[in-house]
Specification:
- Its main location: membrane.
- Keywords: Cell inner membrane, Cell membrane, Cytoplasm, GTP-binding, Hydrolase, Membrane, Nucleotide-binding, Receptor.
- It is found in: Cell inner membrane; Cytoplasm; Cell membrane.
- By secondary structure, this protein is of the alpha/beta class.
- 52% of the residues lie in helices and 12% in strands.
- It has an 8-stranded mixed sheet, sandwiched between helices.
- Strand 5, helix 10 and strand 6 form a beta-alpha-beta unit.
- The longest helix has 19 residues.
- The protein binds guanosine-5'-diphosphate (GDP).
- Guanosine-5'-diphosphate binds next to helix 6.
- The site of guanosine-5'-diphosphate (GDP) has 18 residues, from helix 6.
Length: 304
């Protein structure tokens, strides 16, 4: 229900436009395909993924010789679900914490302002609600506000936070965080890192160093690298995904701010382009406003 509410704008926009494009037409022709292309691009699906979808539909049209506009929804839905299936194989894609990896280390990356801190807070709440012991690490040391904000979330969720003063070495904070998590027998560690996208080499060096130092405490850390992207920023989100996947091995995505945006299509494009599963979507500022990504629900809400 919240998902429907959250994606309402994407839905009306996408579906409304599609309805307009096919109004008065009974079959899918070049004109309909052109409109569809434009609608997908303006919904931030991204050019490459849009062309892939259009190609697949063209293929079906030429194979079957005819496609009614009334079928178009069903077929688009299938194609989009198919694209999402290539990266999100299960129905729900939540991060699962295996019992034999303790502490389970999740390194969280993303540029400032995308909702990284908020997502960490919401995730901490999710894990804690499942009875897990959570520790937060404030290794985004560039801005005092980042540390303060994470501390506010730590208090709200009531989990311990490891921090140093602003400007300290992120790797050193990560080291302290993991050491503390081991000492306290924690189940999950969420490490907030690198809020800067200065240049690719620096980002890569910084993230590699954080990883290397983490591995002194937990040899196979990090177990997950979660990239947080702001779903309302369209092409910026694509660009950030490109930079971060070049700098480090990103294992999962959280796409935030999908409430109040007409840009829900970014989820489709990014998950297709980077072949990384979207595990969570942010649909508000509150503690409960982080949903486990479910591709079927997502596709349905896009079309309902
Ligand atoms: P950070 O700089 O990446 O750590 O970003 P923050 O976590 O501080 O979030 C920046 C702003 O975005 C804050 O005002 C958050 O409340 C807001 N925010 C984060 N996630 C969401 C979301 O899913 N929906 C909405 N509407 N706002 C969000």
């Amino acid at each position: 229900e919240t998902l429907d509410k959250g994606l309402e704008k994407s839905k009306t926009t996408f579906f409304g436009k599609l309805g307009k494009a096919v109004a008065g037409k009974s079959k899918v022709d070049d004109e309909v395909l052109d409109s569809l292309e434009e609608i997908l691009v303006t919904s931030d699906v991204g050019v490459n993924t849009t062309l892939k979808i259009i190609d697949r539909i063209e293929e079906r049209v030429s194979r079957d010789k005819y496609m009614g506009t009334d079928e178009l929804n069903t077929i688009l839905r299938e194609e989009i679900a198919g694209l999402l299936s290539e990266t999100n194989s299960g129905e729900d894609t939540e991060i699962t914490v295996p019992k034999d990896k303790k502490p389970y280390v999740i390194m969280v990356v993303g540029v400032n302002g995308v909702g990284k801190t908020t997502t960490i807070g919401k995730l901490a709440h999710k894990f804690k609600s499942k009875g897990m012991k959570v520790v937060l690490g404030a290794a985004d040391t560039f801005r005092a506000a980042a540390i303060d904000q994470l501390e506010v979330w730590a208090k709200r969720v009531d989990v311990p936070i490891v921090k140093q003063k602003m400007g300290s070495d992120p790797a050193s904070v990560a080291f302290d965080t993991l050491s503390s998590a081991v000492a306290e027998n924690a189940d999950v560690v969420l490490v907030d890192t690198a809020g800067r996208l200065h240049n690719k080499v620096n980002l890569m060096n910084e993230l590699s160093k954080v990883k290397r130092v983490m591995q002194k405490v937990v040899p196979d850390a990090p177990h997950e690298v979660l990239l947080v992207l702001d779903g309302s920023t369209g092409q910026n989100a694509f660009e950030q995904a490109k930079q971060f996947t070049k700098a480090t091995e990103v294992t999962s995505l959280a796409v935030t701010k999908l409430d109040g945006t007409a840009k829900g299509g970014v989820v489709i494009g990014i998950s297709d382009q980077f072949q990384i599963p979207v595990k969570y979507i942010g649909v508000g500022e509150g503690i409960e406003d982080l949903q486990v990504f479910n591709k079927f629900e997502f596709v349905d809400s896009f079309f309902k």
